[in-house]
Amino acid sequence: MNRADYDRYAQAFNNRDYDAVFDFYAPGASIRFFGVDLGTREAFRRFYGFLHAHVVETLTIERFAASEELIALEGIIRVEAIKDLDAATLAQQGLDQFMPIAKGQVQQMRQYIHYHLADGKFTSVGCAIVGLT
Q1: How far apart (Å, rounded) are the C-alpha atoms in residues 90 and 51?
Q2: Mind listing the pLDDT tens digit of every residue in the chain (133 residues)?
Q3: Which of 38, 47, 50, 121 could pair with 26 in a Cys bridge, judged by C-beta atoms 3.0 to 4.6 Å apart?
Q4: What residue stretches are annotated with the SnoaL-like domain (predicted)?
Q5: DSSP string covering 45-69, please?
Q6: Going from the N-terminus, what domains does the chain have, and what CATH number goes with each?
Q7: Spacing of C-alpha 116 from chain mean position
Q8: CA-atom Rg of the chain in angstroms
């Protein structure tokens, strides 16, 4: 996978095309971060469908490196609430680890993301957040 391939993945994510995004993952891929397991197409759609009903989330890539086995990037995740997402609603979804956000509020997070690859598909993904602004 090269930068152009990854850009197609990021564009599909920014466009909320969850099936196109999930197609970049190998069967049985480990998609776990922040206490959420998104290892099936249904779980992936359910999580992001819920989240994106409340927020507009976009990824801006600042640094990118790729090899046949790994993609590593640094970027900014921008989250803007289009409706309130309070602690009770998050808890109902089992997402207590996420921060509530009020309609109109913006959160920006520096995120480091590593994707392990096999045959040009993601086999696992790991994320770390450094801070909020």
Answers
A1: 9
A2: 999 999 999 999 989 999 999 999 999 999 988 888 898 999 999 999 999 999 999 889 999 999 999 999 999 999 999 999 999 999 999 999 888 999 999 999 999 999 999 999 999 999 988 876 5
A3: 121
A4: 7-124
A5: HHHHHHHHTTEEEEEEEEEEEE-SS
A6: 3-132 (3.10.450.50)
A7: 15
A8: 15
